[in-house]
Amino acid sequence: MSMEYFAGVSDALRLTFVQVMIMANLSIGIFIIGMYINLKKWGMGSTGYGLAPSGSILTFPRMLAQQMSQHAHVHNQSVLETFVLDILFQRRILRRSPLRWFMHFTIFVGWMVLFAMSLAMFLVEMIHMIGEKVGYAHSLPWFMNPEVFREILAVPNDIFSYILLTGIIIAIYRRLFVAKMRESTIAYDSILLIGLTVITVSGFIADGIRTGRFWGFDMPVEWAPPASLFHVIISLLFCIAYIPFSKYIHMIAIPLALLANKGGE
Which domains does the chain have, with CATH numbers? Predict the structure, then answer.
């Protein structure tokens, strides 16, 4: 990818690499503000019997650390066991419904690994760009070249994209054809599922146009930059900035609650 520009609909609307990085940092900033609001809300309770509620942002982290270090009232499994079995493996969901667990697990694994790879790609591009500016790019390892690193990630990106797509298809099926799920679905649930679907499918299409594979639907290669731009912008807004203000905050809140309660059933 050229460091001169990232993508654009036309020359007049073209975004530079630096502008896209500014958008990324703005999304992260909105995410941090949202998490600050949530931490303030979570810390509004009192820290002991008869004490006044606390409004400090540090109250919740302190109480979480204290709860994790104390002997639990019900569960007494280790933090490591809770993290691996209850958070990563999601055994609580597995015990209730194997299909629901498979759906959650594929979405969770696909999303988190793709996010990690996107973050790694971002860091490599930033390091290489700075290296070109200050003159040490030639001394970087061979895999730190953005073009090379992108090719390294190509296969795992495909694998985990299809894993994520599998989970999304199951979620759509459950919402449309499972009566209990269909009746309990609200607009909030639909927005989240539609947003995740648009992000995933737009990523496949952008990559398909660029590489000429099936997902490009034989669209002109000139459409690759705007398709990539759309995918990047909606991903930044929906998968980072929107999380603290949406139902997807449960990806953060539930693991914290499990750690505080030391997991278990």
Answer: 90-261 (1.20.950)
